[in-house]
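Give me the fold.
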Amino acid sequence: MAFENLIGNEKNKELLKVAVKDHNLVHSYLFTGPEGIGKDLFAKEFAQMILCAGDEKPCHICKSCIEFLGESHPDFMIIKPEDGKTIKIDQVRFMQEKIAEKPVTSEKKVYILSQSETMTREAANSLLKTLEEPPEYAVIILTTSNESKLLTTIKSRCIKIHFTPIPDEKILEYLKQHHLDSEITTNMIKQAGGSLGKLLKMTEEKEQYLGIENLLKQIETQTITQVWSQAEVLYQAKDSIISLLEYMVIVFDQELRKKDNLCYANAITIIEQAKQRILANANYDMTIDDLLLKLWEEMH
């Protein structure tokens, strides 16, 4: 069954399934939405359905599906940022060379440009030429978490499909099915903001997040000297500090909802101020010292 392993965005699933079933495909799609919610996975599944020769798409048993699942399909290609930063013009030109060739296995050819907002200006302008006059058998899918960085002329030539954050209950259901629910706290789910990809990445760093929750409990019960000495999780997290500060906001927000105590609202303001100082390149250790002192004073 199509999209059976993907969670959320049920309306988009139906829209894409109907497009394939009714042979009502367009030449270019733009999948937009927050990072980590599965846009690339949806694009790949959609591509397999388009290329599939079976009646029930994707059938997983036809020649096309076997080649697709074996990552050897001659009529399919994914273009990603070459150096992890940008999609370059040479990558787009290579795609254009391939797209000019007739399909080998399927009736269509499908190309996915992942993180399409990272295209250089030259690459974007080159792609535009293909979007203006695509071969009749070609389907191009662009995915992006920041469509404002794409050329308006590119966006205007694509059918835009917006993907929304996955509801918390759907994420919880997924975690239980994969026996991951014991690894995740409610605050971590809130921090992920409906992004399963972000949440799964957080599980790899869960000790940091659990350390933050433990530290905030200590602020209410220990002396400031003890708090400073046990705040290693913050002092050593310079590369991920913004994410951890945002997590602290979520923890205090949840406490505010439970206890309706003004000190938690004030704590959130203190954290936001520290975040702004760090973004302004203030001295890191001094900012953390000051943050912890002000939070301690507020809690006491």
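The mean pLDDT is 92.
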